Amino acid sequence: MKTETIQILPYIQTDSTNNEAFRLLQNREVDEGTAIVSSYQSAGKGQGGNSWESEAGKNLIFSLILRPVFLEPSRQFLLSQAVALGVRQGLSNLCDGLPFAIKWPNDIYLSNKKVSGMLIENRIMGARYDVAVVGVGINVNQERFDQNLPNPSSLKIATQVHYNLDLALEKVLSSIMQWYNLLKKHDFMAIERAYLSYLEGMNEMRIFEDNTGRFTGCIKGIDPYGKIIIEKENGVATTYEVKEIRMLF
Hints:
2 domains; single chain; 249 residues; 26% helix; 8-stranded mixed β-sheet; 5 helices; SH3 type barrels; globular; alpha+beta
């Protein structure tokens, strides 16, 4: 099955679509734009070593194989930004323009609730980008979640609409490829500008928590390596890696 330049490989179940993508890459030549799509994964992986749980047959779980050989490995956060913009745009197109936001680094939120997350695993060969496996999970029609999860939601919870998963997949993959093609054209400024325009909490006073405790601050931007820049009330700006800071909304 193909949609635009994307070849879709459907699975009923796998341990992880990212794992399956790397198994395919080990065993044969795989075209850029191949998407491994599964109805269920038994050991889904999320950002920062977290797991990704999803009810079978109700959500989108896929891994997209890309070959951003044109991108310097030191600028790999641009790929994360482009994919986040694509997922956000695809969901907005699907849901009649609802105001989805990007929560740093690449989660997608709606009304302060998480509806999508992603994990990008890169293979670097020397000083050259070889392949990126972009794993994406989107809560579409699921209505019940583990109570221990901090703030999950789904498109159905937000809109009371049951969505066709094939249509949702088509819209999201198409939008990802639009932003990826912009990345290929080296229009980095457009990607960075758009990312900041949809970034949750940008230039707004919010409550954060780091290893020193809670504080009030404001997101001022993202550095070239993907670290978030937060200015505290005293005017001092600090950069943070993923897992070093948490926004409490």
